[in-house]
Design brief:
By secondary structure, this protein is of the alpha/beta class. The chain is built from 15 helices and 13 strands. It folds into two domains: 191 residues, 3-Layer(aba) Sandwich (Rossmann fold), CATH 3.40.50; 180 residues, Glycogen Phosphorylase B (Rossmann fold), CATH 3.40.50.
Amino acid sequence: MGPTRVLAVLHLAGVSGPARSLRPWLERVTDGGELELAVPAGGDGGAAAVYGPSAKVTELPYEALVLPRSPADAARLAAAARRRTRALRGHLRARRPDLVVVATATLPWALAAARLERVPAIAYVGEIVPTGPDPLRAAGGRAVVTATRRLAAAVVCCSEAAAAPFGGPGAVEVIAPGIEPPRGGDGDRFRREHGLAGADPLLLVVGNLSRQRGQDVAIEALAQVRRRLPRAGLALAGAAHPRPADRAYAAELRALAARLGVGEAVAFAGAVADMASAYAAADVVVNPIRAAEGLGRAALEALAAGRPVVASAVPGVTEALAGGRAGLLVEPGDPAALAAAVLRLAGDRAERERIVRAGGDHVRAAYAVERGAAAFAAVAAEALSE
C-alpha cells in the first residue's frame, strides 16, 4: 500500500481501549507515512503516551456524542453537531490526509466531515450502540447506526456483540483487536504507591469511573470478601470523565467505601499509564460492568498477563471470555455473586491456574496482533482504492 497519511479521530484525549486497540493497526496502515491523532481539546494527554513518537497529536474543538434524553437535548445536539463538523472539516482541508479512521460510532461529525471533504473514512466501533429500551435513546442509537453505515467507506467492529446493532458479521467487518502480553511490570511498586502493599488478595478494576462500569459493585463485593479475608484490597485503575454525572459518581464511590468501612482498603489510582505494573500487582482482575460492552479488553489483557478474571455476564464480555471458559462470569450488579466468585478463586489454586491457562490459550488464539493488523490493512487498502 505504501506510505499513507492517516488521521485518527479519537473520542478521548486520555488512554482508552479504542486508542490502544487501533495503535498497531494504524502503524501498519501508515507504513512509514504520517500518523496524526485528533483528540478533544482539554484532555489529559494519555493518548499521546500510548502512541509515543509514532504519531502527532492535535487538539480540536469537538466532543463525543452523548445520546439525547429529551427534545431539548436533541435541539442542542443539532447545533453542536454543526460546529463540530465545521471544525473537523477545516482541519481535514488543511491537512489533507489520505485516510481518516474514526475510533468510535459516537463521532458522526468526523465521518460527516470526511465525506464532505471527499476523504475515505473507516469507522471503528468498539462499543455497543444502544438500540433500547428508552425510546429516545433507542431512536438516537438507530440514527447513529444509519449515519455510520452511510458515511463510512467501511465499518469495522471489535466483536460480534459490537456488530449486532449494525446487522452482525457480514453486514460489517468484525476484526478482533490484538492483545499483547503486558511486559516489565513492577507489581510491588504499584502496591506501595497506592498503599496496598499488604493486600491479600488484591482485586483490580480497570476502566473509567462511571456508573455503567460498576465500580460500586466491586466496592460492595470487597466489603463482603473482607469478612472472610480481612486483608483483601481493591485498586480502581481509571479516572472519571469530565462530565458532572461521572464526577458525582466518583465522589459517591469514596463515600460508599467510607460508609462500608473499607476506605483504607480501596485505592483510587486514577488513569494508570503503566498497566503492566497494575496487572502484575493484582491477584484477581474484576470487571463489574452493568451493561453490554464492545470487547472487555481489560479482561483479555489480564489473562495475557497471567491473572484470573471475574466479570459480569454481559454481551461483549461473555464473548471475550469464551462463554465462561476463560474466566468466571457472574450476574451484573450483584455484589454477593462477585464476592463469592472472588472467594472461590482465593481458596482454589487449581481453579486459578485452570483459568489462567485456558485464558492465555484463548487470547493467543483469538486475539493475535498480526492477524488483526493484516485484516485491518486489507480493509484500509480497499477503502483507499474506491
